[in-house]
Write a structure and sequence with these properties.
Helix 3 runs antiparallel to helix 5. The protein contains 23 helices and 16 strands. The N and C termini lie far apart (63 Å). By secondary structure, the chain is of the alpha/beta class.
C-alpha cells in the first residue's frame, strides 16, 4: 500500500504595487510548497515561475554578496537569499521602507546612492606620497571591518531615525562609509566634520543596523558611529552641549546626574541577609536607580529576598560611564572603570547584577576593552542582567513562585535595545512576567523598536527623541494594556514621559516592580 505524504504549505502575503496603474499598494496571498533548506528567494522564484509572472523583485548573485535582493520580511529588512523559510510561520513580504517603490518589491535605491556619493567615497589625498607606504594589518583593521558592506541598504530601511519625519539623518550606511575612510591611515579628508553635519549625534545606539546586516553583521554602532564620535571629541567637534554637562558631572562627582533626593545606597544597609541563602550577589544600582528611581532598588531587594538571595549593596561605586562611551567622551572612562573594578576587587565581588541594560552592556563589553588598553587585569566577577540572573543562573525551577499573588492586569512589553540586541536577553523578562498569576500578557510585533532614549538622543536631540517615543507608545498601547512593562530605567523614564504627553491612562513599570507588587499582593488597578 502506498501512502501519500502531504506536502507542507507555507503562506506568503506579498505586497504588489505599480505606481503607474495602482492608487495604493495591495497584498496577494500565495500558498507555496515547502522544500528542504528553502529560502525566501526560492519562494519568490516559485511564485514567478508557477503562479504570477508579473511579480517584480530583484535578485542576482544568490550568495549574500550583491545585496540586490533586500526586502522587508515580516517588517524586518533582510536578504531574500539568506533568510531560511520556517514552515511553521506565515510571511509578509514588502519593499524596503524609506525608499520610493518602482514596482512590487523593487525600490529605487537612487536616494541612498546619491547620499553616499556626496560623502566622496574614495581616498582623498592632499599630497602624493614620495615612496610606497607601509600598511599594517593593525592600522587597517577597523577600516577593513567596515569595508565588507555590500550596500543592500537594509540598515537604512530599518533605522528608526531615518524613518522619523523630524530629522535628516544620512543613516547607518553613511556613517559606516565615513568611518571606513576616517580609520584608513591613507585618507586625508575631513570625515569627522562630514559625519557631524550628516547627523552623527542622531543615532540612538539601538543596534538594529547590525541585527539586519546579514551576513556581514557589521558593528556600525561601536566601530563607526561611536568611533567617529570619539574622534569628534578629540577635535573639539563633540560632544553636544547637552551631553557635556553629564560628562562634567562624572568628572566632578562620579555620577552622571545630580543628587536631588537621598540616594538609594544611603537608604539601605550594605548587606541584605536572608536565612539559608541559595546564592550571594552584589547589586550595581547605576546612577539612575541610585539617584532618581530608588523605588526600583527597593523592589530588587524585595524580589531577591523572597528568593533567598543574599545581597550586597556597594556604597562607593561610581558611574559605569555608558554615557561617555555613547557620546564619544572616552577620556573620562578609564579612571571610573579602574576605580570601580579596584573597589569590587576589594569587596571580593563574585557576581555583579544590574537592572540597567546601559550599565550592564557597558560592563560586559566596554570595560574589558579599557582594562586591556590600560594594562590592568580583567575583572574577576561574573556580570549579570537581573532577568538573566534569575532565569539562567538561579533557574526557573528554583524561583519562589508560591508567594506570587494575582495582579489581574493586562501587560505588554518593551524590549530595551541594550538588553535585547547588546546582551541578547529577550525571553527572560517575558518568562518572569508570565510567572505572575492573573497577568494577561500580550506581545507586539515591534516590541524591539527603539523608544528613542539612547545614544545621547534624549539629551541632545529632544525633538527627535520625543518623536521616536511617540511612535513606540502608539505601538505599545494598541492592545490597550493596563501596564507597559520594560526592564530598563532609562526606557522607563522615556516611555513614562511619552505616556504623559499623550495623556494616556497606561502605566509604565519595570518587570522587577511587577514581581515585587505580586509578592506584596499590591493592587495595580
Amino acid at each position: 500500500m502506498k501512502f501519500l505524504i502531504k506536502k507542507q504549505i507555507v503562506k506568503f502575503r506579498i505586497c504588489h504595487y505599480n505606481p503607474d496603474l495602482d492608487d495604493k499598494p495591495y497584498f496577494i496571498d500565495y500558498d507555496i510548497p515547502y522544500t528542504d533548506r528553502q529560502v525566501i528567494m526560492d519562494a519568490l522564484h516559485y511564485i514567478f515561475q508557477n503562479i504570477n509572472s508579473s511579480l517584480a523583485y530583484r535578485w542576482n548573485c544568490r550568495s549574500g554578496q550583491c545585496g540586490s535582493c533586500s526586502i522587508n520580511i515580516n517588517s524586518v529588512p533582510g536578504l531574500a537569499c539568506r533568510i531560511n523559510v520556517d514552515p511553521s510561520k506565515k510571511y509578509v513580504l514588502e519593499p524596503l521602507y524609506n525608499f520610493p517603490v518602482i514596482r512590487d518589491l523593487v525600490v529605487d535605491l537612487g536616494i541612498g546612492f546619491k547620499r553616499l556619493a556626496k560623502l566622496r567615497p574614495y581616498l582623498e589625498r592632499i599630497s602624493t606620497p614620495d615612496r610606497p607606504e607601509k600598511l599594517t594589518r593593525e592600522s587597517l583593521s577597523t577600516a577593513m571591518d567596515l569595508h565588507s558592506c555590500i550596500q543592500c541598504f537594509s540598515c537604512y530601511a530599518a533605522c528608526p531615525v531615518v524613518s522619523s519625519t523630524k530629522q535628516e539623518f544620512s543613516g547607518p550606511i553613511a556613517m559606516r562609509e565615513l568611518a571606513r575612510f576616517e580609520f584608513d591611515p591613507r585618507d586625508e579628508g575631513d570625515r569627522v566634520q562630514m559625519a557631524v553635519s550628516s547627523g552623527l549625534y542622531d543615532c540612538t545606539s539601538c543596534e538594529l543596523c547590525k541585527e539586519v546586516c546579514i551576513p556581514k553583521h557589521i558593528d556600525t554602532r561601536r566601530k563607526a558611529i561611536e568611533g567617529l564620535r570619539a574622534r569628534a571629541v578629540e577635535r573639539n567637534m563633540g560632544p553636544l552641549e547637552e551631553h557635556q554637562s553629564f560628562i562634567d558631572k562624572i568628572k566632578n562627582t562620579g555620577y552622571s546626574i545630580d543628587v536631588i533626593t537621598k540616594p538609594f545606597t544611603d537608604q539601605v544597609p550594605s548587606i541584605i541577609d536572608v536565612e539559608d541563602p541559595i546564592d550571594e550577589v552584589t547589586f550595581f544600582p547605576g546612577c539612575l536607580i541610585n539617584l532618581r528611581l530608588q523605588h526600583v532598588g527597593h523592589n530588587i531587594i524585595e524580589v531577591l529576598r523572597r528568593n533567598y538571595i543574599k545581597l550586597h549593596i556597594p556604597k562607593d561605586f561610581v558611574c559605569c560611564t555608558s554615557v561617555a562611551f555613547r557620546t564619544g567622551s572616552r577620556n573620562v572612562t578609564s579612571d571610573m572603570i579602574l576605580k570601580n573594578t579596584k573597589y569590587f576587587e576589594k569587596l571580593e565581588v563574585k557576581k555583579l547584577i544590574a537592572l540597567c541594560p546601559g550599565c550592564m552592556s557597558t560592563i560586559k563589553q566596554d570595560w574589558p576593552v579599557v582594562l586591556h588598553e590600560q594594562g590592568a587585569q580583567p575583572y574577576r566577577f561574573e556580570p549579570f542582567d537581573i532577568n538573566e540572573y534569575l532565569i539562567r543562573e538561579i533557574g526557573l525551577k528554583n524561583l519562589n513562585t508560591q508567594e506570587l499573588n494575582p495582579l489581574n492586569i493586562k501587560v505588554t512589553y518593551h524590549d530595551p535595545c541594550h538588553l535585547n540586541r547588546s546582551q541578547e536577553i529577550t525571553k527572560e523578562p517575558r518568562i518572569l512576567l508570565k510567572l505572575i498569576p492573573g497577568l494577561k500578557f500580550t506581545d507586539i510585533q515591534q516590541s524591539d523598536r527603539c523608544c528613542g532614549a539612547g545614544g545621547g538622543v534624549r539629551a541632545g536631540r529632544r525633538n527627535l527623541s520625543e518623536e521616536l517615543s511617540r511612535i513606540k507608545v502608539k505601538l505599545l498601547t494598541a492592545p490597550n494594556p493596563d501596564i507597559i512593562a520594560t526592564s530598563c530605567p532609562f526606557c522607563f523614564v522615556q516611555l513614562t514621559d511619552a505616556i504623559k504627553r499623550a495623556d494616556l491612562p497606561t502605566k509604565v513599570m519595570n518587570v522587577i516592580d511587577l514581581l515585587a507588587s505580586s509578592y506584596r499582593a499590591e493592587s495595580l488597578k
